[in-house]
Design brief:
heterotrimer, A alpha/beta, B alpha/beta, C alpha+beta, A: alpha/beta, Rossmann fold, 7-stranded mixed β-sheet, 9 helices, 8 strands, globular, C: alpha+beta, Alpha-Beta Plaits, two-stranded antiparallel sheet, 4 strands, 13% helix, elongated
């Protein structure tokens, strides 16, 4: 008897993704949705999508979704969670959203130990706007606003937001993962599971930073993008559990 | 409950908000409105299900309010002029997302850091939407302690009824002044109409989306028209103005908030001199009570707009009158609070200049 | 031990031709279609024939796990 062993998760709508070929966003969407399904929290989860490519996440996640202004996801999620403390609230944010325009909201939401989960998608560029320099663009990496590559003297170095957040007392779990290989995708799912479980247990602020390919703006093929994460991005943003107070 | 209490204006707003069912407040310190977050911190702590957050910024505060509103709470933030500028993006989102919320602006002198003295420099930023895009916010302008209480109650009602942000436009004078107030009874939250749009988890129902990104231009246009239809309904239902001694008036002063109180004093003095002067006080600044002013123009040919700025509401008075009467202006910006004597003199000077005494 | 028998179904309308599935399939069961789909991509397609080493789909799900577009369903048994 043949058995269906892999299909669309319950909490991803049957809509084609608008993302470019090889984009990591939709892999991450799927992983989050799988975790929501496996933890049985689909009917009490509220998601907060960002500004950027993933703003349309509300078209894909089949859970309640409330849009936030650019960078304000954690503040908005705070408002939801404080009113509905028994619901599961996650914000989904890109690197520009969380580590540039929304740095303040991110740090202070973490510092208050808000019991929410943040999915931080790091693709080293502003994707939606056409590939400008992001706070996480690598030194030497080309972007539409760093002709000749990011220069430390001119542009500053890439920012290690997750490491910064680990210093903040309200955070309980921070891990950096990637979706550029089967193994990393599986680890990412484990990390997302752990982050949501931390929230379910009421432990405090959890965040998973996920290195994600952006073949369009990197101007690489999908497979080259995955390789580039291994060879270059991880040199600056190594995969690791940055903080784990869950045990 | 009809007990008269002597309270500071800022605290009146806080107490009235709690009685109106406000269960979420986020704010950031800025003078002259710090008594509101201070009051709310204590009041929310004493309240079952109440949340107070001292936010890291004005921007965070308004976005927390957006989240609380999405989750179904009656939510409020407060600030003063520069802080309201920072909140404007969030207010635009509230309007676009059709979320109820109450924003209190205790105005101070500006532009820039300005000063902390009472001013009405934010009329434009309040009534013109203030943030980006094609929207309006309801703007209520209390003039005394009792009205701070009554309009705060109304602000929450309007916000819920029309699913739109409502601004209470006060100033430092009103925030600091202690006046006797009778509060309305607290509402019963369970008796409020259900909100069939809130995000509280899709249990036994399809999932919901609250969003303002509408890439399709035809859909975006329709959303704009939908908001516009709502604004037209609001404009038909809630404009409100109060009059004082206008029955036989040849000159009518138009002023709101603290300026209106000062104007009353000036009008009393002018009346003592035998001048037929009255006051029209807009209580709603948006929607502007244009009909009340236009109707008055049948008998009154001279209006004197008095504002604590260099002339902002005067535009709305002119638009209301459509050229039917003369519109004059007297204003003091920068946090100067005119005395009733000063206004009395400005009134009589204008009265004689326009030869109204001779008619 | 008898190798597991698997089968994948690629929804060619959802495929955007990133070919990450092709790159991860251990048994080279996935190829590229010569025809384009309505989006203009040449979608991935199942290569039905076994190669010289007699390798075939085992239903390992790797292609589906890496597919950014949830275009692949996997059956086993």
């Amino acid at each position: 008897m043949e058995e269906l062993v892999f299909t669309r998760p319950r909490y991803i709508k049957k809509a084609p993704f608008h993302y470019c070929p090889g984009c990591g966003h939709s892999i991450i969407h799927r992983l989050v949705a799988e975790v929501i399904e496996e933890l049985g929290i689909g009917e009490k989860t509220i998601g907060v999508p960002p500004a950027g490519c993933a703003v349309l996440a509300y078209d894909y996640f089949d859970v309640d979704m409330g849009e936030a202004p650019h960078g304000r996801g954690p503040a908005l999620a705070t408002g939801i969670k404080r009113i509905l403390p028994d619901r599961i609230v996650f914000s989904y944010q890109g690197d520009g959203d969380i580590a540039a325009i929304g740095t303040s909201e991110t740090i202070h939401t973490a510092n208050r130990g808000e019991n929410i989960t943040v999915i931080f998608v790091n693709n080293n560029c502003y994707g939606m706007t056409g590939g400008q320099m992001a706070p996480t663009t690598l030194l030497g990496q080309n972007s539409t606003t760093t002709p000749g590559g990011r220069d430390e003297n001119r542009d500053g170095p890439p920012i290690d937001l997750s490491e910064m957040l680990a210093l903040v007392r309200g955070t309980v779990y921070i891990e950096r993962t990637a979706v550029n290989s089967i193994r990393n995708i599986r680890n990412t799912k484990k990390a997302i599971t752990k982050a949501f479980k931390a929230q379910i247990a009421g432990l405090g602020f959890s965040l998973v930073e996920i290195l994600s390919p952006c073949p369009t703006n990197w101007k690489m093929s999908s497979t080259d993008s995955c390789r580039w994460i291994d060879e270059s991005v991880m040199q600056t943003f190594p995969l690791k559990v940055i903080k784990d107070e869950i045990g | 409950m009809d007990k008269k209490l002597l309270m500071r204006g800022s605290q009146v707003i806080g107490e009235a908000a709690i009685r109106a069912g406000c269960r979420f407040y986020a704010g950031y310190p800025i003078t002259p409105q710090n008594e509101i977050p201070e009051f709310m911190s204590g009041a929310m702590a004493d309240l079952e299900g109440g949340t107070f957050i001292q936010a890291e910024s004005e921007i965070a505060a308004i976005n927390m309010v957006i989240g609380a509103s999405m989750a179904g709470a009656r939510a409020m933030t407060s600030s003063s002029s520069p802080g309201i500028s920072l909140k404007q993006e969030g207010i635009s989102f509230l309007a676009a997302l059709e979320l109820p919320a109450v924003i209190v602006n205790v105005m101070r002198g500006g532009p820039g850091l300005g000063n902390i003295a009472p001013s009405q420099g934010d009329y434009f930023q309040a009534t013109r939407g203030g943030g980006h895009g094609d929207y309006r916010s309801i703007v209520l302008a209390p003039a005394h302690g009792q009205e701070l209480a009554d309009l705060t109650r109304k602000a929450f009602e309007y916000a819920d009824r029309y699913r739109t942000p409502v601004m209470i436009l006060a100033d430092g004078m009103m925030g600091q002044m202690m006046e006797p107030v009778v509060f309305p009874d607290p509402i019963n939250l369970d008796e409020l109409p259900p909100k069939p749009w809130v995000l509280d988890g899709a249990q036994g129902r399809p999932s919901r989306i609250i969003k303002s990104l509408i890439l399709d231009t035809v859909e975006m246009e329709e959303h704009n028209w939908k908001l516009d239809r709502k604004y037209k309904i609001i404009s038909g239902e809630i404009p409100h103005a109060e009059t004082y001694m206008t029955e036989d008036a040849k000159l009518v002063v138009v002023a709101y908030g603290t300026a209106a109180r000062i104007a009353r004093g000036g009008i009393k003095r002018a009346r003592e001199m035998g001048l037929k002067v009255g006051l029209l006080r807009p209580v709603t600044l948006w929607p502007f009570p244009d009909r009340a002013i236009r109707e008055m123009s049948r008998l009154v040919k001279d209006f004197m707009v008095f504002e604590m700025n260099t002339g902002q509401m005067i535009d709305d008075v002119r638009l209301s009158l459509e050229g039917r009467s003369n519109v004059h202006f007297y204003g003091r910006p920068g946090g100067i609070v005119s005395t009733p004597d000063e206004i009395g003199k400005a009134i009589s000077s204008l009265y004689y200049r326009q030869h109204l005494k001779e008619d | 031990m008898k190798p597991k028998k698997g089968r994948i179904v690629i929804d060619s309308r959802l495929c955007k031709g990133c070919y990450l599935c092709v790159s991860v399939c251990p048994n080279e069961c996935i190829g590229i279609s010569e025809e384009s789909n309505e989006k203009g991509y040449h979608p991935a397609k199942v290569i039905g024939t076994k190669d010289a080493n007699d390798r075939a789909c085992t239903g390992c799900t790797l292609c589906a796990v890496i597919c950014p577009d949830i275009a692949i369903e996997v059956y086993r048994g």
